[in-house]
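User: Quick sanity check before I run a bigger batch. Here is a single chain. Can you write out its predicted 3D structure?
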Amino acid sequence: MKAVRYRNASGEFRIGRLEDESIVDAGPAGEQGFVPTRAAWAALAQAEGQRFPVGSVTLAHPVVPRKLICIGLNYRDHAEESELDIPAVPVIFAKWTTSLIGQGETIVIPREETRPDYEGELAVVIGEPVYRATGDAALAAVGAYTCFHDVSGRRAQLETPLRQFTYGKSFDTFGPLGPCLVDAEGVDLGALQVTTVVSGETMQDSNTSNLIFGIQALVEYVSLATTLEPGDVIATGTPGGVGDALVPPRYLREGDVVDVTVTGVGTLSNPVTLER
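Assistant: Done. Predicted structure follows.
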């Protein structure tokens, strides 16, 4: 089952069930959008509101998390192309939620950022609160999954002595998320294909079976430090093939379109422009 958050003609945010190319309305969206608890999925399955074509409305990022937690260097090939050692524990950084945008919205590169890069990822969304989760409880806490694009300003991120990840990755519009949430129950999150295409050229193509730290390990590790709450998002890391590691580098340019595809979700597509 798939959930979307959309804006109708009156400007109201609402929740819907995505079925092929149609949306079945399920009522007004709350402050956090669709929070994938088991109760929320059950209610969505029973929704019998108006049905209309998905192309007739504007899709927004489906959830508004209190915490957007990102994982760095979580594919072996990305660590190698970055010329960094394979980490012994997950590498964690934050991304401000004000960076989030939805399907079709424009990524705007700030004037000062000279090395804008793409990073397609699988993101998981917490459905049940957990603290110090272990084993099956860690996986059971995941309520949904979706596509995420961790747009990265490499100049701001790397061209300082202490590497300011949060600053370089949290520019407005640098967090496309969506286009929908997919119910994670019964899904093998360790066997999903993740692909990034930039203006028609495939730049990243990998599988979550290649993660250094799988979803269970990430939930276990993150929840040692903080309670994970329903609606929180964990972006699980990007595969090799980022633009900054290529020779010559391939940075995002005016007029690019970036498509991030994850098995079962569909494609998150966003155009790119430069700040005027």
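The mean pLDDT is 96.

User: Great, the batch can go ahead then.
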